[in-house]
Structures are given as structure tokens and as C-alpha cells.
Amino acid sequence: MKxxxxxxxxxxxxxxxxxxxxxxxxxxxxxxxHTREYSEGFKETTNNRMExxxxxxxxxxxxxxxxxxxxxxxxxxxxxxNQNWIxxxxxxxxxxxxxxxxxxxxxxxxxxxxxxxxxVTFTWVKGHAGHPQNERCDELATTAADNIEN
Length: 150
Prior knowledge:
37% of the residues lie in helices and 34% in strands. It is an alpha/beta fold. It has one domain (2-146): Ribonuclease H-like superfamily/Ribonuclease H (Nucleotidyltransferase, domain 5, 2-Layer Sandwich), CATH 3.30.420.10. Strands 3-2-1-4-7 form a five-stranded mixed beta sheet. A two-stranded antiparallel ribbon has the order 5-6.
């Protein structure tokens, strides 16, 4: 089963209130498109944490193994896999270079766990460039960030 997972994160301040937006799309054997949307806001977070949470949420929502194309405007997320950064971080016990610890280890580990049952690829798209699903994810993420109760 092929699923496309679109995701975006937002933060009003870094750190500050933030949110993510995720869309899952699947075309069934009859050619019918099925879409689900997810979003959530957090009082104190960062943009990168929200980018990761969007992908994690989409993957954790899948109930059986799938071929998943993650479409994101986050170079942070896409390059971690497409440039093999994640493999280096793991080999170096979650370090960049000799001393700098990778940020958001908790979410990277959760993402890796969520990926296990699936065949996942990552595609980067330019943000705010008119891509319909990316624009919708941005709307979901910013709305979630803006509607956090203090």
C-alpha cells in the first residue's frame, strides 16, 4: 500500500508556541483518494521539533506496513535521511562532531521507531511555493500554534 505523508511544522518564536500539520493520502484499488489530516499545538517548542512531530504523527497513525513517501519542506528532516546524517549520528552516539550532541534525540528515536514497519522515503519540497498539500499542512500547523491556550 502506497501512502503519501505531507507534513509541516511551525513555531511562533523558537522556542515558543508551535504546531504541526500532517496529511495522509492513499488511493485505494478503485482509484478513490482517501485523506486524513492531523494537527496539534504545543505551548513551548521549536520549529524543528514540530517538523519531526508531524512526520511521527503521520507514521504512527498507519495501522499496517506501507510504502510511505514523506513530503516535507524541512531540510532538517529530509536531509537527515537523504544525506545519511542519521546513520552518522547513531554511530557517534547521537553526536555531531566530537562534542556537540544532536538536538531532539527523543524525537529522532521515536521517528526511527515509527518508521520500522514501513518502507519510508523522504522528498523535500520548497515551502511557501504553492504546493497544495504543503500549503495546507502549513495552515494546519500555524493554526494549531496560534490556538494554544495560555
